[in-house]
Automatic annotation (TrEMBL):
Residues 1-22 form the signal peptide. InterPro entries: Cupredoxin, EfeO_Cupredoxin. It is found in: Periplasm. The lineage of its organism: Bacteria, Pseudomonadati, Pseudomonadota, Betaproteobacteria, Burkholderiales. It comes from Undibacterium rivi. Its main location: periplasm. Residues 10-109 form the EfeO-type cupredoxin-like domain. This is Cupredoxin domain-containing protein. Transmembrane segments: none annotated. Keywords: Signal.
Length: 111
């Protein structure tokens, strides 16, 4: 195969996949503050990849987790991070702050 044909073929493949790569993730934010996760419930589309931005506005560390999905993220005071959830099946997913499990919960509802 000539270099010219290879470059043209690669350009064609890239032009087909570039829109999918450029697709922006649906983004939702969860904030840990005063022993609570805010909001307590988020409705997201099922079957889509989503990004959860996690913020810790409290004075101490927070541990955002869902054991079923193997998601765990520890944030220091004032820190922001994110996790990506891939193609959630319809249902409810419970996330907790491990340091405040009784009061800091957020349900992700995939519909």
């Amino acid at each position: 195969m000539s270099l010219k044909k290879f470059i043209l073929g690669a350009a064609l493949v890239f032009s087909c996949i570039a829109p999918a790569l450029a697709e922006e993730l649906l983004t939702f934010q969860i904030t840990a503050k005063n022993g609570k996760l805010i909001p307590e419930r988020i409705v997201v589309p099922a079957g889509r990849k989503i990004k959860l931005v996690l913020k810790n506005e409290g004075p101490g560390p927070e541990e955002f987790e869902n054991l079923e999905m193997r998601v765990e993220k520890v944030l220091g005071p004032g820190a922001t991070s994110f996790v990506v959830l891939h193609n959630l099946k319809p249902g409810t997913y419970r996330f907790v702050d491990e340091f405040h499990p009784e009061t800091a919960q957020c349900l992700i509802v995939a519909k």
